[in-house]
Amino acid sequence: MAKARGGKARAKAGRPWIKWLIFGPLIIVLLIQLYFFLMICWWTVFNPSSTSMMRTQMSSLQETNSKARLRHQWVPYERISNNLKRAVIASEDANFNEHDGVDWAALQKAYEKNTRRHKVVGGGSTITQQLAKNLFLSGSRSYVRKAQEMVIAFMLETVMSKERILEIYLNVVEFGRGVFGAEAAARYYFKTSAAGLGTAQAARLAVMLPNPRYYDRHRDTRYLGRRTSTILIRMNSADLP
């Protein structure tokens, strides 16, 4: 009997890999989340110099041109036109000031749409979720990535003010091939500054956000014109943080 118990004890002691197999992936996931949280805390005070989306775009551009550079210039919140702030909220996230990072009604609609199409065609993302994706994630569409996006969005909303979230978003979001942030977009498309954007210009930039590289190449589509007119009307009711 004693020998049997001793054999079982040695067998258990000889299989530590089972614990690592179970707990190892969990520890890795938790460390990744800690990294995300610490970076978000850092960015409450300091401005991000680049994002995951920027680095991906830079790599793509340099595949064909080793000297390619991104168009990007950080400007503080007060130097971004209120027209653009209102246009982006009206176009991308009408409930930006009310939700906690996730708009559950929009997510439900996106889920129903994806179910009908039998693939992920829309995410129902808020501005906060889009910022989470831009800062840390890829542009791929999957429910795993969406779950991580939501976790980061909650972190952002916990640590940052709405104003800071919108400030970072407007400074890092992609507006065209290699064009990131409000200042670069204003100069690239309209030869003006982010502070000088008029209502129609701001509405046009906001409408481009869901597919900026496409609309960079196709700037006169009927959809852009119709959608811009709609956002111009909605801008008046968009509340700023």
Model description:
Strands 1-3-2 form a three-stranded mixed beta sheet. Helices cover 63% and strands 3% of the residues. Helix 4 packs parallel to helix 10, helix 6 (127-136) packs across helix 7 (143-159) and helix 10 crosses helix 12 (222-234). The mean pLDDT is 88. With 241 residues, it is an all-alpha fold. It is globular. It has a domain at 73-237: Biosynthetic peptidoglycan transglycosylase-like (Penicillin binding protein transpeptidase fold). It has twelve helices and three strands. One of its GO terms (cellular component) is peptidoglycan-based cell wall. Pathway: Cell wall biogenesis; peptidoglycan biosynthesis.
Brief synopsis:
It is a single-pass membrane protein. With 241 residues, the chain is mainly alpha-helical.
Strand/helix succession: HHHEHHHHHEEHHHH
Helical proportion, percent range? 55-70%
Low-confidence parts: none
CATH architecture of the domain at 73-237: Orthogonal Bundle
Sheet/helix structural class: mainly alpha
- Estimate the mean pLDDT confidence: 88
Total number of helices: 12
Assigned CATH class of the domain at 73-237: Mainly Alpha
The number of E-state strands comes to: 3
The CATH superfamily of the domain at 73-237 appears as Biosynthetic peptidoglycan transglycosylase-like
Shape annotation:
globular
CATH topology-level fold name of the domain at 73-237: Penicillin binding protein transpeptidase fold
For the report, how would you describe the main beta sheet?
3 strands, mixed
Arrangement of strands in the largest sheet: 1-3-2
Any idea what the radius of gyration is?
22 Å
Termini separation: 72 Å
Bin the strand percentage.
under 5%
